[in-house]
C-alpha cells in the first residue's frame, strides 16, 4: 500500500462503499487511528475520470433535476453565510484565494462585495463557466505564486486533494501571517454518517479520498504550526446528504425520512458538536 504523506500506515478496515455517481465500483474506506480519520483505498490512477458526470453538480450550474434545483437554492443562502463569515475577519487588503472554486459563484459574490479574488479549479469545464461570470481561475495551486492572501478558502475541497499534507503546507505558505484558512469538510462522526453507514452520501468514493473528524483537522494543521480558532456548523448539509443517502440506501427518494434524519442529526449535534459538516477557521499560532 502506497504511503502518501504517512497517512496509509497501520490502516484497519472500516467500511466498503460504492461509487453511486459515476462508476458503480466499490472502494474500501480504511481507518487511520493515529489521525482519527478515514482514507479511501485504492486511489484510482485516473481519478479525473470519476468526476465526468452530469451528476457531479459542483462543476455545473444545472437545474434540470430535483437535486440540482435543491442544491442551487441552498447554495444561494449558503453563499451569503460564507460571505458573512469572511467579513467578520479583520483584514485590510481583503484578498482571498478560493481553492476548488467550481463555477465561480462564491468568488463572484466576494468580488461584488469588494474582495480582491483569486481562485483555483482543476476542471476545465467549470473554469469556462466561471470565466463567463468574469471569474478567471487557475488550474492548480502550483500556478499561484508571489502572492500572500488574507483568506484562503476550501469549501468541501480538502477531502478531494491527492497530496493532503503537501497541500496543507502549500496553503500555509500562501497565507499572510495574520491570515486565516477556512476549511469546510464532511464529518464522518456525525449522526447521519453513523446511521447511513456505507450508504452515507458524503463518503462519495473515490472522489473523497479523506474523511475527517474534528481531531484529524486539528492534528493535520498542527503539523504546520496552525490551530483551529473557530468551528461553524453547516446545518443544511445533514438534510441534503440524508436525502441522497436515502436514495442510495433504498433506490427511492424518501424526503420525509431524510428530513427527519437530518433534523435528528442536527439535534444530537447540539450536544456532541458532531454536525454532518463543519467549517473550520484556522490561523497561525
How would you describe this protein?
The protein is of the alpha/beta class and 285 residues long. It contains eight helices and ten strands. A six-stranded mixed β-sheet has the order 5-4-6-7-10-9, sandwiched between helices. Strands 1-2-3-8 form a four-stranded antiparallel β-sheet, with no helix packed on it. Helix 4 links the parallel strand 6 and strand 7. The longest helix is centred in the N-terminal third of the chain and has 22 residues. The radius of gyration is 18 Å and the shape is globular. The model has no long low-confidence stretch (mean pLDDT 92).
The span between the termini is: 34 Å
Q: Write down how many β-strands occur, each being a DSSP E stretch of 2 or more residues.
A: 10
Average pLDDT rating: 92
DSSP helical segment count: 8
Strand order of the largest sheet: 5-4-6-7-10-9
Helix/strand-derived category reads alpha/beta
| SSE succession | EEEHEHEHEHEHEHEHHE
What about the largest sheet?
A: 6 strands, mixed
Helical content, roughly? 25-40%
Overall spatial form: globular
Instruction: Give the C-alpha Rg.
Output: 18 Å
Summarize the structure.
The chain is α/β, with parallel strands linked by helices and 285 residues long. It has helices at residues 66-87, 105-112, 124-132, 164-173, 191-196, 214-222, 235-250, 255-272; strands spanning 12-18, 26-32, 37-41, 95-99, 116-120, 149-155, 175-186, 210-211, 226-233, 277-284. α1 runs parallel beside α2 (105-112) and α7 packs across α8 (255-272).
Amino acid at each position: 500500500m502506497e504511503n502518501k504523506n504517512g497517512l496509509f500506515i497501520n490502516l484497519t478496515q472500516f467500511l466498503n462503499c460504492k461509487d453511486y455517481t459515476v462508476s458503480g465500483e466499490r472502494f474500501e474506506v480504511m481507518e487511520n487511528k493515529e489521525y482519527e480519520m478515514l482514507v479511501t483505498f485504492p486511489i484510482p490512477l485516473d481519478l479525473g475520470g470519476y468526476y465526468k458526470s452530469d451528476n457531479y453538480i459542483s462543476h455545473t450550474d444545472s437545474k434540470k433535476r430535483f437535486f440540482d434545483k435543491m442544491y442551487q437554492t441552498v447554495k444561494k443562502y449558503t453563499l451569503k453565510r460564507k460571505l458573512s463569515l469572511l467579513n467578520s475577519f479583520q483584514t485590510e487588503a481583503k484578498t482571498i484565494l478560493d481553492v476548488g472554486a467550481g463555477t465561480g459563484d462564491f468568488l463572484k459574490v466576494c468580488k461584488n462585495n469588494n474582495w480582491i479574488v483569486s481562485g483555483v479549479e482543476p476542471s476545465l469545464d467549470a473554469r469556462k463557466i466561471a470565466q463567463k461570470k468574469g471569474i478567471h481561475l487557475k488550474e492548480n495551486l502550483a500556478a499561484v505564486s508571489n502572492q500572500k492572501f488574507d483568506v484562503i478558502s476550501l469549501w468541501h475541497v480538502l477531502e478531494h486533494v491527492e497530496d493532503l499534507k503537501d497541500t496543507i503546507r502549500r496553503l500555509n505558505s500562501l497565507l499572510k501571517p495574520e491570515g486565516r484558512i477556512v476549511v469546510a469538510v464532511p464529518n464522518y462522526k456525525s449522526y447521519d454518517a453513523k446511521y447511513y453507514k456505507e450508504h452515507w452520501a458524503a463518503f462519495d468514493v473515490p472522489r473523497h479520498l479523506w474523511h475527517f473528524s474534528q481531531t484529524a483537522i486539528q492534528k493535520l494543521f498542527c503539523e504546520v504550526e496552525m490551530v483551529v480558532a473557530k468551528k461553524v456548523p453547516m446545518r443544511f448539509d445533514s438534510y441534503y446528504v440524508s436525502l441522497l443517502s436515502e436514495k442510495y440506501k433504498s433506490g427511492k427518494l424518501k424526503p420525509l425520512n431524510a428530513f427527519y434524519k437530518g433534523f435528528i442529526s442536527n439535534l444530537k449535534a447540539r450536544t456532541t458538536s458532531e454536525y454532518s459538516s463543519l467549517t473550520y477557521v484556522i490561523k497561525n499560532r
